[in-house]
Write a structure and sequence with these properties.
heterodimer; A: 8 helices; 74% helix; B: mainly alpha; PDGLE domain-containing protein (chain B); cell membrane (chain B); PDGLE_dom (chain B)
């Protein structure tokens, strides 16, 4: 979904760039709480993995392909603030080195593919984890659902920006129908990759999944009275 | 599985996906490209400012073999993103109190 230069006019690109910068600034501040000696390298590897997965375009309907956006995946693995930074680092490298996503459109791309996907994906994920039973399959189901919705959400965000400052005059109804339609299909691919990756990490190192840290809580609660009892005995 | 082993395995997966599997990725236009072309959103699209980058469009300039060119570009991308990302996250992380 990388927007090239020339789709969105200069004033809108600049304004969206300011919005993206503000979002990244908030993420930089929030990520401090999510990152420590153990999770910082994990976040770096997550960024490398998202870059790699974004190269893997999968076919959807009618001569069209899609690829992982990765915002939901990154937010679940390493936290929402860090997730925004993970996708932003990937988008920056793609725009500067691989000529994928325009330089003047970088703010647009960060807004649609980093801020929107993380915001929508992580909110849906948290809401579902709260209502579902506290089990690993629940986390995977929540990840799948959140990822499905995050992709059409990014398509809507693009359509809004296009309506505000598109360089061409295609009626918004046509744009939104086409964009959401194809991105619902791409969302299914996003969801499969996200759920597969999250469940794989949960299988080997559940403690490394930021979005599943609640699962570890009962263990802590059970240990606490034990420790107190031992102190009492001593 | 130790954290070190886990990170190694995840990185290896990224390298294999970008360096080998990417060759088999669909080359059809992506969702936005297709919609843009069908509806005329791309009428005023501009050339990319980095189109002459040695790694533009996920290929190494001058390497004729498509499999090798794309694979090397993918591996280079994974390396760049890993170093830039880890560097950033390491700098902004919560430092242990004893280190101050």
């Amino acid at each position: 979904m990388h927007v090239p230069d020339g789709f969105i006019d200069a004033p809108t690109s600049v304004a969206t760039g300011v919005l993206a910068a503000a979002g990244v600034a908030v993420a930089l501040r929030g990520a401090r709480k999510e990152l420590d000696d153990r999770t910082a390298p994990l976040a770096g590897v997550t960024a490398a993995f998202v870059f790699a997965a974004q190269m893997l375009n999968f076919p959807v309907a009618g001569g069209t392909s899609g690829h992982l956006l990765g915002g939901t995946l990154a937010a679940i693995l390493v936290g929402p603030f860090t997730g925004v930074l993970v996708v932003s680092v990937v988008l920056l490298a793609q725009a500067l080195i691989f000529a994928d996503g325009g330089l003047t459109a970088l703010g647009v791309n960060i807004t649609t593919m980093a801020l929107t996907t993380v915001l929508v994906g992580y909110l849906v994920f948290r809401a579902l984890v709260r209502v579902l039973p506290r089990t690993r399959p629940s986390v995977t189901v929540a990840a799948f659902t959140a990822a499905v919705l995050s992709v059409p959400a990014a398509a809507v965000a693009f359509t809004v920006l296009y309506e505000i400052g598109g360089t061409t005059d295609v009626p918004i109804g046509k744009v939104i129908t086409a964009m959401v339609g194809v991105h619902v299909l791409i969302g299914i691919g996003e969801a499969l990759i996200t759920a597969l990756t999250v469940s794989s990490v949960l299988a080997v190192r559940p403690d490394l999944v930021y979005g599943a840290r609640d699962l570890a809580r009962p263990l802590v609660l059970r240990n606490a009275p034990l420790a107190e009892a031992q102190e009492g005995r001593a | 599985m130790s954290t070190r082993k886990f990170l190694g395995a995840a990185l290896l997966a990224a390298l294999v996906l970008a360096g080998v599997v990417s060759f088999y990725a669909s080359s059809s236009p992506d969702g936005l490209e297709k919609v843009a072309a069908d509806k005329g959103i791309d009428a005023k699209v501009e050339d990319h400012a980095s189109k002459d980058s040695p790694l533009a469009d996920y290929g190494v300039k001058g390497v004729e073999n498509a499999r090798l060119s794309g694979g090397l570009a993918g591996v280079a991308g994974v390396a760049v993103v890993l170093v830039a990302g880890t560097g950033l996250f390491w700098v902004i992380r919560r430092k242990p109190q004893t280190a101050e």
